[in-house]
Amino acid sequence: MWRPSTLVQIFRVLQEKEEADDNTNGNENRPSLNGFGVGAFTLDWSTVATFLFSPLISPFVAIANVFVGYVLIMCVVIPVSYWGLNVYNAKTFRIFSSDLFTAQGREYNISTIVDRKFKLDIGQYEQQGRIHLSTFLLSLFGFGFPTIAST
């Protein structure tokens, strides 16, 4: 018989297996914590019940607006800019990452371009090259800052 505790262990094993892979193309379809998953999935009832009978419940229109925006950005804008348009040579980097990258797709080593006082060393920066961001992080900054500024 399938019990929730069994399912949680299965999901944990699947997640750990996917985290062990270090393949850029294979990592694109990970769960939402580490990849291009859609939304968060939980079996913890306390998390689900947090939104029930709360005095701070948002109106349905506000929730629907956030949901539609999330779906448009995560399921339309980011995939089109990554696979379709290859914006800023995006296929070189992981689609979902908060790391900084070199032009070759390797992780950027920040400690080499700053000195002990954490000031930028221009010579080392020019030697290592420009900093590149993932498609998700570019979209986060591109949509996030104007959204916050407009409210």
Description:
The protein has one domain (about 5-100, about 135-150). The model is unreliable at about 15-20 (pLDDT under 50). It is an all-alpha fold. It has helices at about 5-20, 45-50, 60-85, 120-130, 135-150. Helices cover about 45% and strands about 0% of the residues.
Overall geometry comes to elongated
Largest sheet: none
Helix amount: 40-55%
Q: Can you count the helices?
A: 5
Find the count of extended strands (DSSP E, 2+ residues). Answer: 0
Q: What value does the average pLDDT take?
A: 77
- How many domains in all? 1
Order of helices and strands: HHHHH
Radius of gyration, rounded? Answer: 20 Å
Structural class by secondary-structure content: mainly alpha
- Uncertain runs: 15-19
Q: How much β-strand is present in the residues?
A: under 5%
Distance between the termini: 50 Å
Question: Which SSEs are present, and which pair or pack?
Answer:
Elements: H1 4-20, H2 45-49, H3 60-84, H4 122-128, H5 135-150
Protein name: Amino acid transporter transmembrane domain-containing protein
Subcellular location: Membrane
Pfam family, one: OPT
Question: Could you list some keywords that capture this structure?
Answer:
151 residues; mainly alpha; elongated
Summarize this entry quickly.
The protein is an all-alpha fold and 151 residues long. It contains five helices and no strands.
